[in-house]
């Protein structure tokens, strides 16, 4: 029994140490870059890698999700008391409030987060980061800060694109299948529009982008061992950042929409 309690305390301490290690790393990350020219160069590369290369998957998923939500809403709300435009209204609010911010971020946590963790983890196990430290370079600031800032800049643009393509997907399925008159769908996506929903989605997105990039960088930065450990670090980054995103989604929704 005593051994079980000691092991449990060690595990709790390890968790606390990891949290402290994460915040200490962020303290090293958010410092003035030694060379701004290198920072902007790295940031532009990361914007292309994390943002532009994610456009295609954002387009595809958003179009199909908008179409699916329109179909599901229409087919499962066959009620003469509900106006026909309610399908477009529900689709719009689901896309603005949850899909284009939370679900898209969960999707990109797997793509962008795993990429960041594996890239930095590979640099760690090949001792490139150690070489930077020997030369007096703040490796955390040089490697991680451009990734975090670039992803936080690009995510609102991807979310805007996702919103547009999601609504376009609903329009397309209405036109193709005639499950809903196009005029009613257009009326629904315009009816009782609340502009704050868009800003709410942007705020969530920026916070989630920080979580994804910073946690992926943390797990990659402290990867130890060989290629197997890099894979484990990438998996942990995706899983844990997804859990934190869902927890923050509940908190932010309660604070901003309650």
Describe the model:
- This protein is mainly α and 258 residues long.
- Helices cover 84% and strands 0% of the residues.
- The chain has helices spanning 2-29, 36-51, 55-75, 86-125, 128-134, 139-177, 182-190, 196-221, 227-257.
- Helix 2 (36-51) packs parallel to helix 6.
- The chain starts with a helix and ends with a helix.
- The relative contact order is 0.16.
Summary?
The chain has 258 residues and is mainly α. It contains 9 helices and no strands.
Termini separation: 45 Å
Radius of gyration: 22 Å
Helix-strand string: HHHHHHHHH
Strand content: under 5%
Multimerization state: single chain
Structural class: mainly alpha
Which runs of at least 5 residues are low in confidence (pLDDT < 50)? 1-13
- Mean pLDDT equals 87
The percent of residues in helical segments reads: over 70%
**How many strands in all?**
0
């Amino acid at each position: 029994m005593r051994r079980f309690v000691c092991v449990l305390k060690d595990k709790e301490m390890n968790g606390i140490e990891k949290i402290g290690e994460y915040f200490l790393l962020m303290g090293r990350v958010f410092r003035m870059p030694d060379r701004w020219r290198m920072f902007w160069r790295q940031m532009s590369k990361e914007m292309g890698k994390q943002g532009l290369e994610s456009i295609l998957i954002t387009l595809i998923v958003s179009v199909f999700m908008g179409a699916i939500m329109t179909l599901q809403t229409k087919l499962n709300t066959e009620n003469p008391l509900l106006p026909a435009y309610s399908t477009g209204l529900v689709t719009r609010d689901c896309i603005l409030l949850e899909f284009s911010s939370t679900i898209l971020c969960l999707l990109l946590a797997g793509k962008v987060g795993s990429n960041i963790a594996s890239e930095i983890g590979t640099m760690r196990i090949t001792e490139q980061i150690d070489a930077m430290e020997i030369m007096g370079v703040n490796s955390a600031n040089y490697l991680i800060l451009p990734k975090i800032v670039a992803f936080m800049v690009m995510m609102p643009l991807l979310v805007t694109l996702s919103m547009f393509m999601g609504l376009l997907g609903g329009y397309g399925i209405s036109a193709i299948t005639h499950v809903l008159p196009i005029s009613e769908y257009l009326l629904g996506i315009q009816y009782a529009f609340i502009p704050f929903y868009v800003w709410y989605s942007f705020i969530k997105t920026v916070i989630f982008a920080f979580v994804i990039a910073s946690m992926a960088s943390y797990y990659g930065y402290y990867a130890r061992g060989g290629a197997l450990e890099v894979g484990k670090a990438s998996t942990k980054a995706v899983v844990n950042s997804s859990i934190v995103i869902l927890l923050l989604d509940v908190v932010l929704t309660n604070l901003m929409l309650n």
